[in-house]
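Quick note —
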Amino acid sequence: MPEFHGVFPYLVSPVDADGTVRTKVLGKLCDDLIGAGVHGLTPLGSTGEFAYLNAAQRTAVVQTTIEATKGRVPVVAGVASTSTADAVAQAKAYQKLGANGILAIMEAYFPIADAQIESYFRAIADAVDIPVVIYTNPQFQRSDLTLDVIARLAEHPRIGYIKDASTNTGRLLSIMNRCGDGIRVFSASAHIPAAVMLIGGLGWMAGPACIIPRQSVELYNLCRAGRWDAAMTLQRKLWRINEAFARFNLAACIKAGLSIQGYDVGDPVPPQAALTAEQRKVVEAALREVG
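Predicted structure written out below.
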């Protein structure tokens, strides 16, 4: 099984008004992010607007990412559905395309009990031969993963990682204490990455890394070297991006940041709205500040 660690930007999904995926722009972004030193790429995370794309668009995003990456870094593709059968089909399809891992996300319309939440993630992991990262984001999900469910899932041979976007850093430490080496923890942009690294995190999977890849990699390297003073100085500076990110729609914010940097990624998929001129200025100022 490949080992994942470090900075995994959550890629945007650049889609034209007519629904066509802008594969050229996405390919260039992947290439530039790898050039900036990121350790992996994640298409179809939250920033990738997975909930707003159809199956063909999602496939195009994953395929473009894999083709642009050319095996230089692992690609961990997001799989999300309200239906177990659909999630399993996506996971199998992305493995076949060449994904190196799956980021498993559970959508829910009706509330789901713990046993069914567990069986959803287990079914995805049973369906593939590549590592699975389970993703929990209580802000957007009706059904959160409890510590008990996480501990049971950690025993699955292919579930080796969790990305938790709870904003509760204490919960990450509880997961680490409870599961030991059974599951490794990635930070989300909802946490302070340096703080998560300090308590034993592996890195972070996050949208902001799309627009500040070099600085994110530098922060990771400082943490890995145990240079915590320098890491915290940089972290304080970079947190401005997270603050802007937290204020606005995820995809709109990162797409605006990328378009400021010259990537023609277009607007978020409706009914989401692009940032207003005023909001865009906030992102511009934050980007200027972090250099």
